[in-house]
Amino acid sequence: MSIDPHGPCQPASGDWARSTLVCATCGTNKNLQVQSIAAAAPPVKNVVEVGYSCRGCNLDYVHLADVADVASVLNRTRCPEDVLVFGGIYIHCGQPMQRFGSEVRRLAAPVSTDVASDDALDIYLRTRVLHCGCGFQIELPD
Predict the structure, then answer these.
(1) CA 125 to chain centre
(2) Is residue 89 part of a domain?
């Protein structure tokens, strides 16, 4: 997986350069899957930071993009296959996922791989469980 921080849409000389959201390798947006959207820092009118991947080229991008360009990619499909993170909200099937509960998970690893031992390092991780109406569920660190 490679991330191109200088993808096809970047500000030019401090002004927003209008460009379509496309994969730099295959030159199209038909295989793009938007994965995250966040406010631009510093804020720029009608511009967001977008993370997306091209399923055709197997490349990932994170860069600034025009809101209209991101919307055109999102509106292409009725039901995204992946989870979209937008402003800290996880979206699946076009709907915000609801908190379904929380769990405490135990992760254990041997202290050393050199000697067989019953000693292990335990880590406890609190997670939140998010649920989509379609039945999809995801568990994330809290």
Answers:
(1) 22
(2) no
CA angle 28, 26, 87 (to 5 degrees): 60
The bridge status of strand 89-92 relative to strand 95-96 is antiparallel
**What is the extent of the structural domain holding 38?**
3-77
Q: Are residues 67 and 106 in the same domain?
A: no
Q: Which residues, including other chains, have CB under 8 Å from residue 20's CB and lie 6 or more apart? A: 8, 9, 29, 69, 72
**Rounded Cα–Cα distance for residues 78 and 69 (Å):** 17
3-state secondary structure of 136: coil
pTM: 0.54
**Residue showing tokens 């690893």:** 109
Nearest to 7 by CA among 20, 81, 15: 20
Please give the structure tokens belonging to residue 122.
């335990």
Cα(37)–Cα(142) distance, integer angstroms: 20
Q: Which of 47, 77, 107 is the last residue of a domain?
A: 77
Tens of pLDDT along 76-107?
Answer: 755 556 787 877 788 887 778 899 888 888 88
